[in-house]
Amino acid sequence: MTDRGEGRLAAYLERIGLVDPVGSDAAALGVLQRAHRLAIPFENLDIHLGREIRIDSDSVFDKLVTRRRGGYCFEQNRLFADMLAALDIPTRPLLARVRLGSPAGEPPARTHVLLLADLAGEAWLADVGFGGSYVPAMPLTDSHVAMTDDGARHRLRRIGERGSPAGEWLFERAGPHASTDGRALPHAEWQPQYSFDLAEVAPADLEQANHWTATAANSRFTNVHIATIACPGGFASIVDRKLSITGASSGQAEIAGAGEYREELAARFGIFLSNAEVAALPLLRD
Questions:
Q1: Positions marked catalytic
Q2: Which of 119, 121, 125, 122 is nearest to 25 (CA)?
Q3: Strand positions, DSSP E, the chain
Q4: Distance from C-alpha of 35 to C-alpha of 76, rounded to nearest angstrom
Q5: Which one, of 97, 173, 105, 168, lies nearest residue 133 by Cα?
Q6: CA of 108: how far to CAs of 100, 105, 194, in Å?
Q7: Which helix (H) or strand (E) holds 209?
Q8: Which domain range does residue 258 map to?
Q9: Helix and strand numbers, DSSP H then E, in the chain
Q10: Per-residue pLDDT of the chain (286 residues; tens, 9 = 90+)
């Protein structure tokens, strides 16, 4: 590893609150994924501030680590892939169709990126960029179920063949509605989160998917202001003006105005925007 790589890894580990050495096995992957999601918020606010979403390694490291902002999946999982590589955990990206909150029928576009990690020859899913709920690290095994401390179960199912529009694999969740970003159905039974296949993804595919997600008129991310973060035993989200928290303290509230919005972003999500930036958000121009 180069001196630059070592410096970036050290800065990243400090950013996610890890000071002890980490390994390159499944346990280490789980620890890193959990720490990342507890520390770095999922958010799309730069889109609403008219800023380009860049997903090259330098840009995402500067934004998420140096400037201590958050980002969405194309940023989060680019950073995570780089840091896993520094720990000798190779990964490659996969593109997914988000099923959470999507109507049945025509498959949605591939607007989510996750990672396929190689752990001593065994394939594992790694994903720190799904903003709808917490996602644990999971082996790519049909019918594998994992539990998380927010009271949810998570399951992988093989549902089709590579290249099928419906997807080859389906990631599902069963658990409390409160520990999601609000798109989940109110029941706690199995619900689809996203579907994906294992086809190779080129850098140009990621650039194209990121551009559509950040700019298309019918993209969720151009229409809704979002910030979410995992909490010990729960989850917090602010979707437009609706704040929802579950865990040690739970509740919902409607954000009244710009001052309160800025305070909640800072206190609960670690997102520090200036007064001018908050005032520039379309959500708060009233």
A1: 73, 112, 127
A2: 119
A3: 42-43, 91-98, 110-119, 122-126, 138-139, 145-147, 153-158, 169-174, 191-196, 226-231, 234-239, 242-246, 251-254
A4: 13
A5: 173
A6: 10, 9, 10
A7: helix 203-215
A8: 3-284
A9: 9, 13
A10: 566 778 899 999 999 999 876 888 999 999 999 999 999 999 999 999 999 999 999 999 999 999 999 999 999 999 999 999 999 999 999 999 999 988 777 788 999 999 999 999 999 999 999 999 999 999 999 999 999 999 999 999 999 888 777 789 999 999 999 999 999 988 989 999 999 999 999 999 999 999 999 999 999 999 999 999 999 999 999 999 999 999 877 889 999 999 999 999 999 999 999 999 999 999 987 6
Q: What angle do CA 213, 219, 266 make, to 5 degrees?
A: 75
Its pTM stands at 0.95
- Kindly report the CATH number assigned to the domain that includes residue 244: 3.30.2140.20
Q: Which helix (H) or strand (E) holds 66?
A: none
The total domain count for the chain is 1
